[in-house]
Amino acid sequence: MSGNKFLLGGLLIAALLGGLWLASQQQKGTQLRYLQEYPQPRALPEFSLRNQHDQAFGNADLLGHWTLTFVGYTYCPDICPTTLAELNGIYPQLQQLPADSPLQVLFISVDPKRDSVARLNEYVSYFNQDFIAATAGHDVLFPLVRAMGMMYGISESTENDDYLVDHSASIVVINPQGQVIGRFKPDNQPGKVAIASGQQILADMPVLLAR
């Protein structure tokens, strides 16, 4: 009799532990693991950029889309091309995610002096023709980038065009209401360029889209 009690007790404990494990796994599936989510969505200032097709791109073009946004410049030697290649690598999987609002990728150049419409078109098309590339004057770019929680610094030489631009390496997420909700920060790994991880983005975007 006592043996049956021990057996029954063991089964109950196993069932309880199994239920707790299952609940924890289900909870993990509904939690963001990598996105640095802002406490409140951030509204963006009114802005007007010029895209690679020489068309206006502004706040209205963010509405109804999830937008992964990256700030950089076409002459960037490492972070920008590596990040855009990473985004291109996961883009087919992102497009297959079930969502009421489609997803788009936006590359904002903070180097309007050198990044003409033609150059933006050539540059972004190399990675993915669906990607959007756009720029504007610094009077538009600086407050826009700052509102996203990003930064850039530029020291333009009047003697030549050979200069670098310091800029954030994170990828910002903008919701279909045109608000910034957070960012994927660079994944620092020894011996590699520190960029946002495509696998981390793939892990969290389904959670965001399911909300």
TrEMBL record:
The entry's keywords: Copper
Protein name: SCO family protein
Family as reported in the entry's similarity comment: Belongs to the SCO1/2 family.
Superkingdom of origin organism: Bacteria
InterPro entries: SCO1/SenC (IPR003782), Thioredoxin-like_sf (IPR036249), Thioredoxin_domain (IPR013766)
Pfam family name, one: SCO1-SenC
PROSITE patterns attached to this UniProt entry: THIOREDOXIN_2
Gene3D superfamilies: Glutaredoxin
Domain Thioredoxin, residue spans: 38-210
